[in-house]
Amino acid sequence: MKAKILVAVFIFTVFFSFAQKTTEKPKFNQQLATELGADKYGMKAYTIVMLTTGATKIDDKNKMGELMKGHLANIGKLADEGKIIVAGPFLEQNKQNFRGMFIFNTKSKEEAEQWVKTDPAVQAGVFSYEIFPWYGSAALPMYLEHHKEISKENP
């Protein structure tokens, strides 16, 4: 009986301490918030660029392959420069002809447009684009550092 009570107390203690740890709010880090440009909600303005199907159709697979290599290299360059923080294609066709998206680390639509125009596939007219202001977590740029740790290959 005494052993059962001790086991019950132990289980209760473990459960209670686990429950406390999972509900604790992380400590606010003013330095990190400032470095990331966070407002009081931990958020900031970004610009989203939705890549759409462009007017140019290229049937030559080699030429299209080179454009896509240039497209991916440009994304990598912009990411290394801290300008682009999210990029990726859509996995399904959609009514809007969205092909992919970028989230740029700027609130300036003009600056985002300058950056998207450095893309060879945009320059060739394979992709067009639409630009939207967006408000999201200021910590979003931090995921890129961890993405490099989990990707075995770079497309």
TrEMBL record:
Is the keyword Signal assigned to this protein? yes
Query: Can you give the residue ranges of the YCII-related domain?
Result: 62-134
Q: Does the keyword Magnesium apply?
A: no
Q: Which UniProt keywords apply?
A: Signal
> Where does the signal peptide begin and end?
1-19
Family note: Belongs to the YciI family.
What is the official name of this protein in its record?
Uncharacterized protein YciI
Q: Which organism is it from?
A: Chryseobacterium geocarposphaerae
